[in-house]
Write a structure and sequence with these properties.
The structure is a single chain. By secondary structure, the chain is α+β, with helices and mostly antiparallel strands.
């Protein structure tokens, strides 16, 4: 494999780009979603809380002005605007909304029950000429009661630059590696054995990360980091404006492979395990990452493993912010961002990035570089610190 060439030191302020999401994985543009729920049951993200009705029945359940339409949406190349136009032939459409995160199911909300009934009888199970002959599967939709979990899962604005989040110590550098370098890094790890977790695959270098304890065994050194990442590590050390963090010798690498729909539960990397700089290089596919700061710092998932697929209900109030991670970008966590903010990758197959629908790739690979420490953490955030918390 050709070695990745080191590059000159990079100034973080000059690379905090506000460019639009790359076309990689983009399947189309959506109209801006109306923040008002026509049913009067709006949630925090502005998306009506409709859901698919339980049970079967060819009539689609109890009549309602709202239709649940499957095999239709931006993930299959049909915009909400096109859906509204097609269903508008049967009456006034008050809104078209995503039914879930799949991008292939929508809610069509009519002003009148009779319009919904006419559309269901005409289009259910039949090709729709206005939508390219696609066969639709339609039922009446029902309103789902609001729960605490909805509050944790409601969509929030997605930033394209770290500076927009105003989280001290958080940086995002776009195009940290080239397309060719990305392909070579992926090829290098694919030549090595993967370890299977429940929903994803991992590789560990330097020290193995234990998901049960969220720590490492410092007595079991696996050797130096592989030579194919040496230029990346050198490039990180050349980044300016990271105070003393850039001088840290990174000696632990976890490579994660995420298939579509797989993410990470909210967590802070264990303070007593790793030093104050964490670097995550995104390859192959995009995603969004959410940051949460809990007011008392005490909430942790029931399972200690970040491989847990469950997004649990929070026990305290928290601040949420979100950022888009394009392929070939590197995210740097230091200071407050590293020690006090939980980071989280939603378990989605598509992500809404402002007005764009971004499909995650067939795989996303991350290279997470860290420095293993021995002994307790002495950070300035004791309420989030396993070494200092009573």
């Amino acid at each position: 494999m050709r070695a990745i060439k080191p590059i000159r030191p990079r100034n973080i302020k000059t690379v905090a780009s506000k460019k639009k999401p790359a076309s990689t994985g983009q399947v189309g543009l959506e109209e801006k979603r109306n923040g008002e729920d026509p049913s009067g049951e709006a949630n925090m993200g502005g998306v009506p809380r409709f859901t698919r009705p339980k049970g079967g029945g060819g009539d689609g359940g109890e009549a309602s002005p709202n239709l649940y339409v499957a095999n239709c949406g931006p993930a299959v190349g049909i915009s909400h605007e096109a859906v509204a136009a097609a269903f508008g032939e049967f009456g006034e459409v008050r809104g078209v909304f995503a039914a879930d995160e799949s991008g292939a199911r929508v809610i069509v909300s009519y002003a009148e029950v009779g319009s919904a009934q006419a559309a269901l009888e005409s289009l259910n199970g039949r090709p729709c000429p206005s939508l390219g002959g696609r066969s639709l599967h339609i039922r009446y939709s029902v309103i789902r009661p609001h729960t605490l979990e909805d509050q944790a899962n409601d969509s929030i604005p997605v930033s394209l630059a770290a500076s927009e989040l105003n989280i001290p110590g958080l940086y995002l550098l776009h195009d940290f590696v080239t397309l060719e370098e990305e392909q070579e890094l992926i090829a290098a790890v694919d030549e090595r054995p993967w370890k299977n977790l429940s929903k994803r695959r991992v590789q560990h270098y330097g020290y193995e990360f234990c998901y049960e304890t969220r720590n490492v065994n410092t007595e079991r050194h696996l050797g130096e980091l592989p030579t194919f990442v040496s230029p990346v590590v050198e490039r990180i050390s050349a980044i300016s404006e990271l105070d003393n963090s850039a001088s840290v010798t990174l000696d632990q690498l976890t490579v994660n492979e995420y298939p579509p729909g797989v993410g990470l539960s909210p967590h802070i990397d264990t303070h007593s395990a790793f030093d104050g700089l964490i670097c995550s290089l995104s390859l192959a596919g995009p995603c969004i990452m959410e940051f949460r700061r809990y007011s008392d710092g005490s909430w942790v998932p029931k399972s200690a493993s970040s491989d847990d697929m469950t997004v649990e209900k929070p026990d305290s109030n928290f601040v949420r912010k979100s950022i888009y991670l394009p392929p070939r970008s590197i995210l740097l966590l230091s200071g407050e961002a590293r020690y006090a903010w939980h980071h989280y990758i939603p378990h989605h197959k598509i992500d809404m990035v402002n007005d764009s629908v971004i499909r995650r790739g067939s795989r996303r690979i991350s290279f997470t570089f860290r420095k293993v420490i021995r002994g307790p953490c002495g950070c300035e955030f004791p309420q989030y610190c396993d070494s200092q918390r009573l």
